[in-house]
Each structure stands twice: as structure tokens, then as C-alpha cells.
Write a structure and sequence with these properties.
- With 121 residues, the chain is α+β, with helices and mostly antiparallel strands.
- Helices cover 31% and strands 36% of the residues.
- The chain is built from four helices and four strands.
- Strands 1-2-3-4 form a four-stranded antiparallel sheet.
Length: 121
């Protein structure tokens, strides 16, 4: 039974931005993750060992965001997607990274990047 696990609105402080001055200070990003995997075994067993530990996924995404200063959210999102596929038994992962401060001069606008990766491609 294929299914989705969603993690939404995960906020992380990190160093991110094109100018070095922007990367020098921490700023908030928002991470949304969609994890596709077989949920049949977990649904039948009611055992966390048969699914993906949500907290472990959040720790992985957090660690990727904080491991270095990134220039682009594109790079950060792609790295998160690759690491999630490496670390967990996922069929597909979709990561959205939103950077609220990217468009601070435009009231209400935010910038985000969404990357999708599959295990076999």
C-alpha cells in the first residue's frame, strides 16, 4: 500500500543567501517534505519500525540546512532530497524550501523551491 507522509511548516535557522553579508547571519527557512513509501506493513503492524520516523526525517533535514552556508535554496532543497533518499526507505521525496526573507521588499511575497527525486531516477 503506497502512501504519503507529509511534514509541513518545519522552521530552521540557517545561513543562506547570494551575497556573503546575507549568508553571514542566520535566517529562517520553512521546509515541507512529502515522503512516498509503502505504508502497508506499518498500517498492519502499528509498529514505528515499519515506517519512517518523522523526527529522524526532521533531524536529517535540519542537519542538511545547518551543515554549511548555502547560496541558493535550490542547492539546499536538492541536497535535502538526496539525503532523505539515502537515509530512509523512500520511493519518492518532494522537498519544498521557502525563504520568507527573499522577497521582503514585496509585501506578503515569499520565494520557495520544490525539488522531487525518486529512488530509481
Amino acid at each position: 500500500m503506497s502512501g504519503l507522509i507529509r511534514i509541513e511548516g518545519f522552521r530552521v535557522l540557517c545561513h543562506l543567501g547570494v551575497p556573503a553579508e546575507e549568508r553571514a547571519r542566520e535566517q529562517e527557512i520553512i521546509i515541507d517534505a512529502e515522503l512516498s513509501l509503502d505504508l502497508g506493513r506499518a498500517a498492519a503492524s502499528d509498529d514505528v519500525r515499519d515506517t519512517v520516523d518523522y523526527a529522524a526525517v526532521c533531524r536529517t533535514l535540519h542537519d542538511v540546512a545547518r551543515q554549511r552556508a548555502y547560496c541558493l535554496i535550490e542547492t539546499m532543497a536538492a541536497t535535502m532530497a538526496s539525503e532523505a533518499l539515502r537515509a530512509f526507505p523512500l520511493e519518492r521525496v518532494r522537498i519544498r524550501v521557502t525563504k520568507p526573507a527573499a522577497l521582503r521588499d514585496f509585501i506578503g511575497a515569499v520565494a520557495s523551491v520544490e525539488i522531487e527525486r525518486t529512488r530509481n531516477g
